[in-house]
Amino acid sequence: MMAGDHISVHGPGSIGKASHTGSGDIVAGGKYAGGAAPDVSAVEKLLAEVQAMRQHLDESDRAEVDAAVAEIQANPSQERFARILRTFSGIATVIGEAGVPVIAAIKALLG
After folding, report:
1. Cβ(102)–Cβ(88) under 8 Å?
2. Whether this model's pTM surpasses 0.85
3. Cα 42 from Cα 58, distance rounded (Å)
4. DSSP states of 7-58 as a string?
5. Which residues of the chain fall below pLDDT 50?
6. Roughly how many angstroms between the first and final C-alpha of the chain, as a whole number?
7. What does 96-108 look like in DSSP terms, one character per residue?
8. Model pLDDT, residue 5
9. Residue 29: what pLDDT?
10. By CB neighbour count within 10 A (0-12 exposed, 13-18 middle, 19+ buried), where does 46 fall?
11. Can you tell me the distance from the alpha carbon of 93 to that of 83, in angstroms, rounded to the nearest whole number?
């Protein structure tokens, strides 16, 4: 705080004064401030379908899927989450029938 600053904080999600220097975002109250957070059960269903799809993938695609799953579990930003969904849907589309449940789970997640 600087001399003369007066900050009152009220209600849930209030952070008081946020100062920012450098790069990156200041995020308060979760990373999905610009939209609704994804439904947890829908994400769990997607991850289960992705796990089932893994057996049909080559080593390179498995590594890409595993990295994307790890990112989802780390609660990525909404923008990154959308890119991960596109990664899953692209791989699922290419492998054909084995990827259909993943695409269905993504559609259910997106509403």
Report:
1. yes
2. no
3. 26
4. ----STT--------SSS----S-S-TTSPPPPHHHHHHHHHHHHHHGGGS-
5. 1, 14, 20, 26-34
6. 44
7. GGGGHHHHHHHHH
8. 62
9. 44
10. buried
11. 15
The reported pLDDT for the residue numbered 55 is 95
Residue 62: strand, helix, or coil: helix
Please identify which residue in the block is written with the tokens 């029938």. 97
CA atoms of 81 and 75, how far apart (whole Å):
8
- What tokens appear for 96 in the block? 């054909």
pLDDT reported for residue 24: 52
Cα 90 to Cα 78, 83, 104, 110, distances in angstroms:
18, 10, 13, 16
Query: What tokens were used for 58?
Result: 């080559």
In residues, how long is the chain? 111
Residue that the structure tokens 């259909």 belong to: 100
